Amino acid sequence: MNIVGSFFYSSIGRKIIMAVTGVILIGFVIGHLVGNLQIFQDPDHINGYGQFLHSLGALLWVARIVIIVSVVLHIWAATVLTLENKKARGGDYGFKNTIRATIASRAMRWTGYIVLAFLIYHLAHFTLGAAQTATYKENLKHYTMVGDYRVAGFLVVKAGTEVLDVHSMVILGFQNPIVSLFYIVAVGLLSLHLLHGIDSLFQTLGLRSEKWSGVLRKLAVLFCAAYFFFNLMIPASVLLGRLQPRVASVATVTK
User: pTM of this prediction?
Assistant: First the structure.
């Protein structure tokens, strides 16, 4: 068996795969959140951001493929390791001693699967457009940039450019209470998943010690709480009427 094969078929190799793909996915969710928070600025920001991503062309698809492969490998490694652990124990215990296990660790597998289902819907909604409202498709598909959009000081989208109206699309999507509730629950489960994942990540990479494990746990809790809160702000602001699509009449039509 070659080195790559041995790596995939060993428990240590699978744990490393989970750790590396975990780092990639954590980086993605942070970047995704930072991009989405531009919804609280004028439409030029998030619309320009969306146009910038589309302008990357092949690079955007490379990033998407890396993320998809990471998700697949992460789930595969987690599932195989879970089955191996169950087999090594001779099946489930008659009595599960979960006193020392955290809620996050016990729910790790199920939160992962539920988040995967949400991710598929989220892509269908905002990336593929399969779940967008008819109002958006008919009336708000395009937006003309009022000002320039810059990334790290570099001009990437000029004023006057016609782009997709991501700002209104996101708001109209979250005006549906069911969609918003699904989003909030999924992000909450993802935050719980991340909490245990960060702990496991540092342990697998040998970066966790008894000396600072307590500090690591507090930082992980703080990070996951902040991640959930800032994601929660988006649908909550829409449902409370703090965020409105650029055409006021459309908001009335969709309610």
Answer: 0.79
